[in-house]
Amino acid sequence: MKTWSEVMEIQPLASKIITNSIKKDRISHAYLVQGERGTGKEAIALLLAKVLFCENLRDADPCHICSNCKRIDSGNHPDVHWIEPDGQSIKIEQIRNLQKEFIYSGVESTQKVYIIKGADTLTANAANRILKFLEEPSKKTTAMMLTDNSQSILPTIRSRCQVIDLRPLNPRLFQQQLTESGMSEANAILMSALTNNLNDAFTWIEDEWFAESRKIMVQLIDMFSTKPDDVYLFIHQHWIPHFKDRKQQEQGFDLLLLAFKDILYAQIGREDSMVVFTTDDESLQRTTRYFSQEKLHHILNAILQAKRNLKQNVHPTLVMEQLTLQI
Hints:
By secondary structure, the protein is an alpha/beta fold. It has helices spanning 4-10, 12-23, 41-53, 67-74, 92-103, 124-135, 155-158, 171-180, 185-194, 198-205, 208-226, 231-242, 246-267, 282-290, 293-311, 316-326; strands spanning 30-34, 80-83, 112-116, 141-147, 162-165. Helix 1 runs antiparallel to helix 2, helix 11 packs across helix 14 (282-290) and helix 15 runs antiparallel to helix 16. Pfam families: DNA_pol3_delta2, DNApol3-delta_C. GO terms for molecular function: DNA-directed DNA polymerase activity.
């Protein structure tokens, strides 16, 4: 997204709030931009950073061709700092290093910007450090904190930011975009349930790792009804070695959630809402007979809790073991 008009098409409220602030010269010292993956958090942060440094600002839009705009695009502007998780979290050392940068005036101007991706992954110590920044803002400092898990943001941090809520993208429009770009209808339905990002959707659908993920997920669900005594061994031999990092583990839980929703949909006659299974799938038929609706509701809640535990840095092996026992 290159202009606020383009942002307006996807996130009208966010675009209106920010452009009004720009035109009135009342840009906040701190923003918390929250929304699902693919809703435009990074694009909005990048656009606002350019607005603050652009040499040829046109109304509220940056020119994208001046030296500052180009260096922000390439990640090389000395006064624009991006912080993202180191492994599964943003650590206190990263915030200390950021604070050292802010002891000095801007290299080329008095303006400084820092953008924190995955702000929900800040450790407790790192969050308290960043809180100091927010409590004592420099006149020319703008913070942008991006998150898809707003519930994990400390209330004290939230209260010091202008909150920008991004609305979920319309999945049917996204499905249409995927099919028009060459993806099969079945895959487009699945991808639209997993992501709002076009590039991610095509990367995943062509990735052998993702294909194996779907296979392992279906095998695991089938084992609950056919070989329940072997499930614990299966997750240690197949699931845990395959879903290694946090992003993969989250995707594994997303696949499980969609699959168990399909089983529930099949029971209540909403086959048109299914995204993983087809109506003639033997595995679906077995599990539909095996699980009661009450049990499926319990399982769906357990998977959602497992996702929350994972975001709270509970050890992923323990999370998966607990979920398996609950199912």
